[in-house]
Amino acid sequence: MHVFNLEREQAWDPKQHVEKVLGKVEDGDVTVACWEPGQISPNHCHPEATEIYFCFTGGGVMRTPTQTVDVVPGSFVVHPPGEVHEYENGRERTMLFRIRYGKDMRAHHIDWRGHPGWTQSAEDRAYYQAYPIG
Question: Residue 17 CA to chain centroid, in angstroms?
Answer without folding.
Answer: 10
